[in-house]
Design brief:
Elements: H1 6-16, H2 28-37, H3 44-51, H4 55-58, H5 63-68, H6 73-82, H7 90-97, H8 101-114, H9 117-120, H10 125-142, H11 148-158
């Protein structure tokens, strides 16, 4: 079976998320593409995982669908690791994610994009404060799990404003 190109995985993600919008009304595919941009320095496998990081949680797509589409098993494993299963505590999910380097990098990029001030500015104040706390707490779990150089690479690509938290 042919392994899809990054462009083909992007198209797969775009089809999966068609008609979906994020909390601020932007087509959802833009979020996953921003997360994937944060993985550019780490290779196409992590970019693919980033493009697909919400497909299992937010669409009817199954892991079997991904494998049937030729998505490499390692990519599917990363996507599964960052997918929050129904009923799973958020912190428990994070503690599982940090046991896997690839999943941790994808989740850091996801968190960094969700934490962008330009995006948060479009949210109601109560949501903005609640989510800012949640994302800050997640960073306390995620960031220590990777080398600082990797963390800086992801943040510089996705949300450079967060680099100040490292200094």
């Amino acid at each position: 079976m042919h392994s899809p190109t990054l462009a083909e995985v992007d198209a797969f993600a775009a089809r999966a998320h068609i008609g979906q919008y994020d909390r601020i009304g932007v087509p959802y595919i833009e979020h996953v593409r921003a997360v994937a941009a944060g993985m550019a320095a780490f290779g196409s496998g992590l970019q693919m995982a980033a493009l697909l990081h919400d497909v299992l949680e937010d669409t009817p797509t199954s892991p079997e669908d991904l494998l049937a589409a030729g998505i490499p098993a390692a990519v599917v494993a990363t996507v599964r690791r960052v997918t929050r299963a129904p009923g799973t505590d958020y912190r428990a999910m994070l503690l599982d994610i940090v046991t896997d380097h690839a999943a941790t990098l994808v989740k850091i990029a996801d968190n960094a994009h969700n934490s962008r001030a330009d995006r948060a500015a479009h949210l109601p104040e109560a949501d903005r404060a609640r989510l800012a706390g949640r994302y800050r707490d997640a960073r306390a779990v995620l960031w220590p799990a990777v080398a600082e150089a990797d963390l800086r690479t992801v943040l510089a690509a996705v949300n450079p404003a967060l680099l100040i938290e490292l200094d």
